[in-house]
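Follow-up to my post from last week.
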Amino acid sequence: MTTALENVDLRVGQGELFGVLGPNGAGKTTLIKILVTLLLPTSGEALVDGLDVVRDYKHLRSRISMVSGGEQAGYGILKVREQLWMFSQFYGMNSKAARRRIDELLERLGLAEAANKQITGLSSGMRQKMNLIRGLMTDPRVLFLDEPTVALDVGAARDVRSEVQRWMREDPTRTVILTTHYMQEADELCDRVAIVNRGRIVAEGAPRALKESVDEDVIVDLQLDPGTPLLDLLRAIEGVGAASVREEDGVDRFSLLLADDAILPRVMTTVESAGRRVSGLVRRQPTLEDAFVKLVGRSMTEEEA
Amino acid sequence: MGIVMPRQLIGFAAAVRLGWAVSSNWTRPILFVTYAVLRPISVALILAVMYSVITHNAAAARPYLAFLIIGTAFWSFIQEGVSEFATGILEDRGRYHILKYTYMAPLGFPLFLVGRATSKLASAAASVVIVLVVGTFALQLSISPLRIDYPLLIAACVLAFISVIAFAITLSMVLLAGKDTHGYGEIMAQFLYLFSGAIFPIAVLPGPIAWLAALSPLPYWLELCRRSILHGQVYQMFPSLSDGEVLLRLVIATAGTVVLGYVIYRWTDRRARGLGYIDMEANW
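User reply:
Got it. Predicted complex:
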């Protein structure tokens, strides 16, 4: 049996937009499932809005809501507005108030024209926006977003992110817990993030603070034409704190964390010795991905593989 | 001033509406109603014809024909109730991928399931009336609305309703806590058919099975339905018991079903959550 989460100790404050960041399979969704009462923890204690997720789950459910990304959830036979109204009723909302709220959110998310469409006819972006409305309309005290922008096009993902931000601004007591494996999304949205890998929290803090942890390193992106494997050779160089690679458009893109500038010539020598041709080299500011690589020693893509 | 409805009632009403939308969406309303009427009539008539052929329409067999028709009429309530609860779980999980959201809703999952199955239970209740009307006119059963013992019938049906709901919720939760559970609803409904005394008295079952059937509330319910509608003109499963004694057995069996159902419900709910089955992906 695999342990999905181990020694996870987190405290999220009221009004925070908290990110749980990590590769696929890191344990993010398991954590969310426990917090929304869908999964019982095998040990330990979890409180949401002061309520125990195991003992007080019935009371807790009226205070929370969850939206997951990348799924085709919904009664296909119902129209968008009908489906949302139905769920508002399962949460005990006043029917008129629910209809008003639904129309307002449909308008805000650009779904007003699709309100009377059957949900089987929606694009994945529209469907995800509808799911987001389902999560927001009941005005939960804590909203759980599990990879809410996964598989969405750029425009739809941006709309989802900006609606979440607007929803948070409307009421400073609202709390959001968001899981994502998009570093940029966590960086843009979250007040604080926890980086999770293989069921453990490896770091926690504000995105800026986490990025500052790699501030003293020199971060270099190296583009190489395809050739012999190089990652292990680069990692073996003294002064290379971490190295990762991803293939994009037929080019190998290496990210290197170097202890200082003096390491770069050694890197270039290694590259040349391996017969690889450099097609680009950029020194850049640190990102959360760099923080992850430094903490874990491998990139998220490698962890997922 | 508007009527303020309790939150649970609001959610329940929406679940009823959802159940109707889901169960009637496959065709136009007129065809749906035709199907809902013709199906129970066909079942009752097939049984009646089979029985008439076997007994050569003998006058002495009339009380047993009444036994058969009333049992079949009321049976549809169990059939629809049990299978619709199970279908609700399987559809919401495998077809609509929405089970986790309905499960999490503050309405409460059991109440949601009852609401979702209500339209089917209502159509089953209508089919009871239809089959009894057909029995009265087409098969010359001496059913008169003026001679029905309504207090007894209502008491029996309320208790049976509680039993069926308890059993159906329990079965649903067992399905929730399991994998690959397609068809279990229908199987369980057929299994109950055997134990219910719907088409034959439970005394004809082999010893241990008859003993098990006697623990179920269903034979007592159907017995009371038959007695309250046709009094002495119907074959009796429990001739040595008075109406009051049968009712008492029904009360005890119903209480047992509810208690057992609650225990199983709690256990399966924890099991489903413990194994992470609530949001499990399933084929449809």
